[in-house]
Amino acid sequence: MKLAPVDLLSKMCPLACIECLLLSLWSGELQSIHARWAELSDSYAFPIVLLSGLSSFSLNITSLFANKSTSPLTLSVCANAKQALMIVIATMVFGTPINFTNGVGIFIVLVGSARYSHVSYLESQRAAKGSG
């Protein structure tokens, strides 16, 4: 079944939202947010989180449309750049300290996802040569 990108999102997002809410309720994250609500609403963090959600929604729609017209390599490079940018922005906005262990972890994640993107690209090129 082929669905338009927005139709696909309209089917998948409500289920993903329910799953995330149930998991955050189970893990105690919702209670933690509720306890800190006054602090969040008085600061600039709430608009940034809202903007992040809207940006993520826009990114999903854009990615679905971009999948039709760009190469896997382009999408992988953009995804890795976005991931690094989100780490930098979150660190600056929320003042999250990055110690050596955090830095090593971030580095491993970025290198691992870049390596995965590279291997995926090579495999797609091999598959394209084999079928063409």
Rg is 19 Å
The portion of residues assigned to helices is over 70%
Arithmetic mean of pLDDT: 80
What fraction strand?
Answer: under 5%
Number of helices: 6
- Overall shape: it is globular
What are the low-pLDDT stretches, counting only 5+ consecutive residues below 50?
none
Number of strands: 0
The profile of the biggest β sheet is: none
Instruction: Spell the H/E element sequence.
Output: HHHHHH
Which structural class do you get from the secondary structure elements?
A: mainly alpha
> First CA to last CA: what distance?
26 Å
Task: Provide an overview of this structure.
- Helix 4 (45-69) runs antiparallel to helix 5 and helix 5 (72-94) runs antiparallel to helix 6.
- The protein has helices spanning 5-27, 29-35, 37-42, 45-69, 72-94, 100-131.
- Helix content is 88%, strand content 0%.
- It has 132 residues and is mainly α.
- It is globular.
List the helices and strands and how they pair.
Blueprint: H1 5-27, H2 29-35, H3 37-42, H4 45-69, H5 72-94, H6 100-131
Helix pairs in contact: 4-5, 5-6
In short:
With 132 residues, the chain is mainly α.
Q: What key phrases describe this protein's structure?
A:
132 residues; mainly alpha; 88% helix; globular
